[in-house]
Q: What sequence folds into this?
């Protein structure tokens, strides 16, 4: 049994430079089987969270005999207002990766099963819902092998983009280089397919998050290995270890530029945001050389939370690591009203930058940081009572409440 677990943080004070974050409530949700949250967004006075459930009891009001993408609305105190199970195309089962809201609609991206010549396989699932959460259209795309959803964004034209990886050389995949490739699918507002793009090489790629950019294009933050042949490769980077990749796309998904970042060990990206003068990206690294500064621990054996800023062309402005002697990483970043940034991630460390971690069992716990505009640490707090195994998304309500 695994319950979805959600907590709310509240700080008191007049400035983000004088924070004191405390937990105001916590709730568990789910049934007797596996339940998982992948995405959460503010909604009215509360929140919507989205993931999947295999339970047929407990908080699931419309149980099914197959896994469903589970959408739950909670109020400001964490009490359930309503929930719905979405079973994918033809009721074959679905799991949710990300929930997104536009002015007039909601979008889901995730995974759903589909029947192929190789049997029942997993493909991308994209769904458009009206403001009452009724499905307007949904579709499954993929090939004869598995596709794994990692992220998505609302497109500039009001459609939706899903990002992740594919291992299929056929079906809806127009280009395949080998192993697992980065695969992007764009759906138009009416549900027709706008474009599909593959970015990678013969080595395995990790998939990642995609965001819309102010120039009408997109930024894709992912990771991969540098081998040829392929359409994404960087000279001077060792193909034996995963490197961090930024891929800048135009409105049609065509590559404008790509850059590789990191050092001689594994470097992975988790989230990115756009600023007026560039981008800030967060993730994790095991490297202590190359683009990496201030690494803690032992290179190749432990990981640090890694954050770096680039200009709009992808050139690094600054790069910094935070953590201790154990594993640390990040999956979420948000800009604050005063120009600082809040980062959420996880840590196993009890030393270095990680101060106040009460975890006695070296489990991953939730770690919160605030950095200034130059990447310097302002504030940090580990939540030793909160295991980070199931924490994959966070929602910001506001800077001051």
A:
């Amino acid at each position: 049994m695994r319950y979805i677990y959600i907590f709310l943080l509240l700080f008191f004070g007049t400035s983000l430079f004088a924070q004191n974050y405390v937990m105001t409530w916590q709730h568990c949700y789910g049934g007797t089987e596996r339940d998982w949250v992948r995405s959460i967004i503010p909604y009215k006075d509360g929140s919507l969270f989205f993931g999947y459930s295999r339970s047929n009891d407990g908080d699931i009001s419309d149980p099914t005999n197959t896994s469903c993408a589970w959408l739950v609305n909670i109020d400001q105190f964490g009490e359930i207002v309503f929930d719905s199970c979405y079973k994918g195309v033809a009721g074959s089962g679905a799991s949710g990766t990300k929930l997104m809201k536009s002015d007039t609609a909601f979008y889901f991206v995730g995974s759903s099963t589909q029947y192929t010549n190789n049997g029942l396989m997993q493909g991308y699932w994209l769904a458009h819902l009206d403001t009452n959460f009724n499905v307007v259209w949904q579709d499954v795309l993929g090939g004869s092998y598995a596709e794994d959803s990692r992220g998505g964004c609302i497109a500039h034209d009001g459609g939706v983009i899903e990002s992740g990886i594919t291992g299929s050389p056929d079906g809806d995949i127009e280009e395949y280089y080998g192993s697992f490739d980065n695969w992007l699918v764009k759906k138009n507002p009416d549900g027709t397919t706008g474009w599909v793009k593959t970015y990678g090489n013969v080595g395995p790629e990790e998939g990642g998050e995609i965001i819309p950019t102010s120039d009408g294009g997109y930024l894709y933050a992912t990771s991969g290995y540098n081998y040829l042949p392929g359409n994404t490769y960087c000279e001077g980077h060792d193909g034996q270890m995963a490197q961090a990749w930024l891929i800048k796309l135009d409105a049609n998904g065509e590559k404008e530029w790509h850059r590789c970042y990191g050092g001689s060990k594994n470097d992975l990206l988790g989230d990115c945001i756009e600023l007026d003068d560039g981008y800030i990206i967060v993730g994790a690294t095991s490297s202590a050389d190359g683009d990496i500064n201030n690494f803690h621990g032992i290179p190749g054996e432990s990981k640090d939370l890694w954050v770096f800023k680039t200009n709009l062309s992808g050139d690094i402005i600054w790069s910094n690591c935070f953590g201790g002697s154990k594993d640390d990483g990040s999956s979420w970043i948000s800009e604050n009203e005063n120009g600082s940034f809040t980062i959420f991630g996880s840590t196993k460390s009890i030393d270095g930058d990680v101060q106040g971690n009460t975890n006695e069992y070296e489990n991953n716990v939730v770690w919160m940081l605030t950095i200034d505009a130059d990447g310097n640490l302002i504030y940090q707090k580990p939540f030793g009572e909160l295991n980070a195994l199931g924490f994959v998304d966070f929602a910001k309500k506001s800077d001051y409440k």
User: Anything to note?
Assistant: Residues 272-401 form one domain. The first strand starts at residue 4 and ends at 11.
